[in-house]
Amino acid sequence: MSRTHIPGTPGLLRTINDRAALELLLDTGPMTRSQIGDLTGVSRPTSSQIVARLEAAGLIEATGAVQGARGPQAVMYAARTDVVVGLALDVLPTGVRASVVDARGNVLGSADVPTSAERTAVRDVRAAWDAACADAGVPVERVGTIVAGVQAAADPVSGDLWLVGDLPGWPLLGVRTLLEEEFGVPVRIENDVNLATIAERDAGRRTEKSFSLLWLGGGIGLGTLIDGSLHHGATGAAGELGYLPVPVTVREYDDHSMNLQDLVGGRRFEELAARYGVPGTTYAEVLTAMAAEPDSPAVVALVEDFGRRVAAVVQPVVAVVEPHLLVLGGPTCIAGGQRLADATRSHLLDTEQGVAPIAPTLVPVAPVLRGAEAVVAADVRSLLLDRVSLHLADHGAPPVTSSAVRPSTTTGALAPSHSG
């Protein structure tokens, strides 16, 4: 069977070459025309044309000069990452953490914005947008995309929320459409533990073929990376462990818990802390006391007891997913640290089940926001590259665009809600 070959048009080739050059500048930093030509494989005249087009589009700028081996100094060019930026959000029960991020993942500014009793999704985003841009010194109109982490399962196709934790003022249906219509930019709504899993990957777990992140806080959740891809399930609710009934073996030491949320959630942790004499009357106070005296007998006893509970939560994860590594994250696990990881593994060894390596998180500070920053940086990069195509399309070249800023079934929300 014969196949018709359609050669690339000059406009299409220009688009491809210009995008490749801009990607190169984003990845490696400033270069001369000659270096751009050498690394993209085009001739010196073509390289000069690429630079001229990108400079005319406002996507690159001259940043200095270097002395060449022969002849005069050569001008260095760098990508302009200030042309479009992204807004990363961690939506919390009492406020919003926000960062402004460029295409290289640099955090240009940040803000913590408390919310009022009259909070809405639009008010939350607008206040965070204004405050973070002011801190970054970036005009608000340069924000081209938003990624928001929420305590809920987020449908990767519709963006609708369900199994919602503590998210006052935010609608369950149509929230992504609402925000996109209000602000005029693409919006991703992601589960918070999904984003924490991305942050864990970027912090040093890339060598693992697969790993799961168990988040324990006021609520519980699970994020799983399989062969480099996040697993979120059909509607974004994969990892909702809190609704699973407790195993029969748990009755030996806990005859009150009906499900895994009851077994290891924040309220039960408070009760156990009081039982073992750890200071504090609230969950936050208990965590503070544990950080102050991690080796006190009361804290050691609490963590050991809690480890067998975590082992009961982990058993179905190991049985179904069998990850290469299980990471313990969230406020409770951060307070327990390596001792909790060791206690959990010790209790698993007493079962007939295989045991994955267990480790404390590498991202104890703002993991949800850091994950949102990583996702929005990739989206900003795609928007910046698409500006090459848009500029050339205005001059007769066919557009070559990326769909990375539109949530899809491969990058949508991963798992668990209620992860306080």
Automatic annotation (TrEMBL):
Record region (Disordered): 396-420
EC number, UniProt record: 2.7.1.85
Organism of this sequence: Oerskovia enterophila
Name of the protein: Beta-glucoside kinase
Alphabetized GO MF terms: beta-glucoside kinase activity
Keyword Transferase: yes
Source domain of life: Bacteria
Keywords: Kinase, Transferase
Enzyme class: transferase
Biased composition regions of type Polar residues, renumbered to the chain: 400-420
SUPFAM superfamilies the UniProt entry points to: Actin-like ATPase domain, Winged helix' DNA-binding domain
Family: Belongs to the ROK (NagC/XylR) family.
Record-linked Gene3D superfamilies: 3.30.420.40, Winged helix-like DNA-binding domain superfamily/Winged helix DNA-binding domain
Domain HTH marR-type residue range list: 21-70
